[in-house]
């Protein structure tokens, strides 16, 4: 069946639009997850929205399931790898990679799926740096649209990447096109600036779902401030977290600090530069003694708190920094780290880059903390309540230590909740360590479920079982899938939507 489908695609799009070679299947099936690679049936590279329409209609005719992806840089969440074996990867990033429009006055860029954070940053630089992107601390070659649709986030005031999308162009499972928001009105001049148009807001249907393929959208961009001043504080003890969180909540609830505020565990920080000392197969979690030594060596403390101010000049920002210093230093525990020190510390420079809209590769050093290339993300939400945050820390530390892994966690804090970014780095080449990784992830999910804090963005290995925990959502999303995509053309199984 798939060979007839590939022949039909070659006939319509050209022979160079399809690759079913062993090399392509290996490359697009690779991921860092413990479940192993997921081999696709082949790869298709469309060049336009019209190509995508053709492929979708042919997939429906031939009973083929597609796996749309952009740049495959969602490391630790699945990369290009499909949720199920033998799906056909529809790589939107290779040829559909244009910045279609930039409106500097109204602050947006219209982009295709292949536009990366690096590419969008370069486009803004070429135009005189009037607008600032919101990047992640992940790969600069990650796709801006893909990250937003999977509800990835950044650190600037425009951190909500999905919330910053407007005017989606979507290929539906029957090959028709839907434009969201005011874009449903042909010729609307407000398509990219007004999300609250006529009727239901449909954008959410295409986030963490398989109801359509987004081929372009506008991403809203922040005017670049003349001055950015980052600041950080280190705290010496694991038990300092409750006091930190309660201070940060006040700073964000009043929006005194415009960026999100990071509260980063010492190991999450130093593992961007260091590797597990003396690693050998079968080792457990790093000892507290060794961890403390690395915290001192890299200046992270047990916790690093970081944020930034924007304004007209460095002098104008100094009183704001002084106020933050007064709040943290009143604890008697905080060590202030200035903007100038941050610039010259490779562990801390990551934070300055993310607050400044500069794509950075530096945090990817986490992937080398242990050999073997294995990495999995776990993302529960933690209320901005110091007592609860401490409970979450103790829970995660206990489970990770029991299974032999380090507590590599960064709380990215808003006024009410923090996204608790757990990265579990393991040796994927070691069967025993991979097995421990699977058990550890399951134990963490179960523990957080039990206390009422479910995970959100989920690696492809776990998406279907994660949906099985949510019968209400599973029933509703299944009804929508049956109505929109009865043949299962687009990514059946993605986020557990069959």
What would the keywords be for this entry?
498 residues; 8-stranded antiparallel beta sheet; 3 domains; Uridine Diphospho-n-acetylenolpyruvylglucosamine Reductase, domain 3; globular; alpha+beta; Vanillyl-alcohol Oxidase, Chain A, domain 3; Uridine Diphospho-n-acetylenolpyruvylglucosamine Reductase, domain 2; 5-stranded antiparallel beta sheet
The percentage helix is: 25-40%
In total, the number of domains comes to 3
CATH fold group of the largest domain: Vanillyl-alcohol Oxidase, Chain A, domain 3
Strand % is 15-25%
Number of helices in the DSSP assignment: 15
For CATH, the homologous superfamily of the largest domain is named as FAD-linked oxidases, C-terminal domain
Overall mean pLDDT stands at 97
- Radius of gyration equals 23 Å
Count the E strands. 19
Which CATH-level-2 architecture of the largest domain?
3-Layer(aba) Sandwich
* Low-pLDDT stretches: none
**Which word captures the global form?**
globular
Query: What is the terminal-to-terminal distance?
Result: 21 Å
Category by helix and strand content: alpha+beta
Taking the sheet with the most strands, its summary is: 8 strands, antiparallel
CATH class of the largest domain: Alpha Beta
Keywords: FAD, Flavoprotein, Oxidoreductase
Domain FAD-binding PCMH-type: 36-224
Organism: Pseudonocardia yunnanensis
Protein name: FAD-binding oxidoreductase
Characterise this structure:
This is FAD-binding oxidoreductase. There is one protein chain. The protein has 15 helices and 19 strands. It starts with a helix and ends in a 14-residue tail after the last helix. Helix content is 34%, strand content 19%. It is globular, with a radius of gyration of 23 Å. It has helices at residues 2-13, 22-29, 49-62, 117-126, 144-149, 241-253, 266-270, 288-298, 314-329, 339-343, 346-355, 386-402, 431-450, 463-468, 471-484; strands at 18-19, 42-44, 66-69, 88-91, 99-103, 108-111, 131-132, 165-171, 177-179, 213-220, 222-223, 227-235, 261-265, 303-311, 335-337, 374-378, 381-383, 409-413, 417-426. The chain is α+β, with helices and mostly antiparallel strands and 498 residues long. Strands 12, 13, 14, 15, 16, 17, 18 and 19 form an eight-stranded antiparallel sheet that branches. A five-stranded antiparallel sheet has the order 5-6-10-8-9. The protein has three domains: 2-91 and 488-496, Uridine Diphospho-n-acetylenolpyruvylglucosamine Reductase, domain 2, CATH 3.30.43.10; 99-223, Uridine Diphospho-n-acetylenolpyruvylglucosamine Reductase, domain 3 (2-Layer Sandwich), CATH 3.30.465.10; 227-457, FAD-linked oxidases, C-terminal domain (Vanillyl-alcohol Oxidase, Chain A, domain 3, 3-Layer(aba) Sandwich), CATH 3.40.462.10. Helix 1 runs antiparallel to helix 3 (49-62).
